[in-house]
Amino acid sequence: MNKILFSVLAIMIFNCGFGQKSNDWANFSKYEEVNKTAQRNGVVFIGNSITEGWASRHPDFFVNNNYIGRGISGQVSSQMLVRFRQDVINLKPKAVVILVGTNDIAQNNGYISLPNVMQNIISMCELAKAHKIKVILCSVLPAYEFGWRKELKPADEIIKLNKLIKTYAIANKIIYVDFHAALRDERNGLPEKYAADGVHPTIEAYFIMEKLVSSAIAKTIKK
Q: Burial letters for 102-114: b for 16+ Cβ neighbours within 10 Å, e otherwise?
């Protein structure tokens, strides 16, 4: 029953990402209104359905810590880069948590090479730095397969992208949060207790992620 429940929830969250106006490719409209009254000087989390689901499933973690969730289901790195000014920079946060890559590897918007995904991530980091916003970079979560793209074999591609992200983070003195190491199973996927559908975290997985990212945020802000 739990597996069915989580799968339905994941599908609902995923489908919500396609509810934007047909000509609004980056889905600027999703947070356009709430951004007008969003609290400043906090920490913004930008990402896809994993981030969107995090803010909706455990809102207290965000509200109690002045964290702002700006995840949009189904999005790839190029879409996040396009809306980075509206959903991150204009909120004038102390820091931004960037969690991106799953949907690029799933080819949600067509094929993109890992180096080009990394270029999009680097551009977000450089935009943040230019506006004196500190950055926390997160690994892509493990996934053995994608339910909506079963022909793909993402596990090794995720590991490769994570190596690129970690290398960049170290070279630029950015704290890297390794969710992959904390959550992976023997197949380099997510075990059922951490993701009923193999991709979208359960609340237990989010609790683990929260401990890791909270520590990273505290260290980053103290720098």
A: bbbbbebeeebeb
pTM, 2 dp: 0.89
Label residue 34 exposed, middle or buried (CB < 10 Å: 0-12, 13-18, 19+): exposed
Provide the edge-to-edge strand list for the sheet that holds 95-99: 67-71, 43-47, 95-99, 134-138, 175-177
Under CATH, to which class is 44-222 assigned?
alpha beta
Q: What counts of helices (H) and strands (E) characterise the chain? A: 11, 5
Q: How far apart are the first and last CA of the chain?
A: 46
Q: What would the pLDDT profile of 113-157 be if each residue is shown by its tens digit?
A: 999 999 999 999 999 999 999 999 999 999 999 999 999 999 999
Instruction: Compute the half-sphere exposure of residue 39: CA atoms within 13 Å on the CB side of its CA.
Output: 13
